[in-house]
Design brief:
heterodimer; A: alpha+beta; Sortase, Chain: A; eight-stranded mixed beta barrel; B: mainly alpha; 0% strand; membrane (chain B)
Chain lengths: 209, 61
């Protein structure tokens, strides 16, 4: 009897330790993977941008597309935006919905990101206020979007990704950005959506190489 | 359970301690690099995307 009770106790303690280790893995371990991928993709992107030849080839899935910076989150905040929103893409960083507008285009540039795991790129999205800047750097231009709205929606609210957000059938005239992440933190019950509109586009000066 | 393992480890208490620590590390490594990456998508509590345009969803809503 005593051995059984002791065995049960040991099992419970072991289970607890494994859960602690798992939580560490989720919140910290997954971020190490993202960091490595971000460094690699960032280097790749910089190399591409420095190259003199421009191809018309589309950005391949899983590759870097642009750089996102949000001054509200500090001047060191930057992530490479990946093309694609599959699980394996979002593990590398915030992902652009394939098929939605590209940065600066008329329509809706939709970017999704993790809020608590995998480096949590969109962890602080809830702190954004109206008028805050979202900077998107591409090879040739730097686009400045300003936050125009924030919504909490159901996970099935696909209409936020429409060219005119929330109005799937309208023809777009504005240049919008939409950021999506999960809400509340550590849950998949809802989604937090940030809308923004293009405020300015500045041509980037190419550094001589 | 642990007492049972401890009794079956060979050698003096020093070698036993070393073996026991080695076992713990081995189990942790297997969990971290094999089990957790496999479990993670199944208990994913961090969905960034809205459903629909691309097949990104796991079985859980």
């Amino acid at each position: 009897m005593r051995t059984v009770i002791r065995g049960m106790g040991e099992l419970c303690i072991t289970a607890g330790l494994i859960v602690i280790l798992f939580v560490t893995y989720e919140l910290w371990g997954t971020g190490r993977y993202t960091e490595g991928q971000q460094n690699r993709l960032g280097d790749e992107l910089m190399k591409d941008w420095r190259a003199s030849r421009v191809t018309t080839e589309q950005v391949r899935l899983g590759k870097g597309l642009a750089m996102i910076r949000i001054p509200r989150f500090g001047k060191d905040y930057h992530y490479v935006v990946i093309e694609g929103v599959e699980r394996k893409d979002l593990r590398k960083g915030p992902g652009h919905y394939p098929g939605t507008a590209l940065p600066g285009q008329v329509g809706n540039f939709v970017v999704s990101g993790h809020r608590t795991t995998y480096s949590a790129p969109f962890n602080r999205l809830g702190e954004l206020r109206l008028g805050d800047k979202i900077l998107i750097d591409t090879r040739d231009e730097q686009y400045t979007y300003t936050v125009t709205d924030r919504r909490i929606v159901k996970p099935s609210a696909v209409e936020v990704t429409a060219p005119v957000p929330l109005h799937p059938n309208r023809k777009p005239t504005k240049r919008m950005i939409t950021l999506t992440t999960c809400h509340p933190k550590y849950s998949a019950a809802e989604r937090m959506i940030i809308f923004g509109e293009l405020a300015s586009a500045v041509r980037r000066v190419q550094k001589p190489t | 359970m642990y007492l049972w393992i401890w009794r079956r480890l060979p050698g003096t208490w020093q070698t036993r301690t070393a073996t026991a620590l080695g076992l713990v590390v081995a189990v942790a490594v297997v969990l971290w690099y094999v089990v957790f990456p496999w479990v993670e998508p199944k208990v994913q509590f961090d969905h960034g995307v809205v459903d629909g345009p691309t097949p990104t969803q796991s079985a859980k809503p």
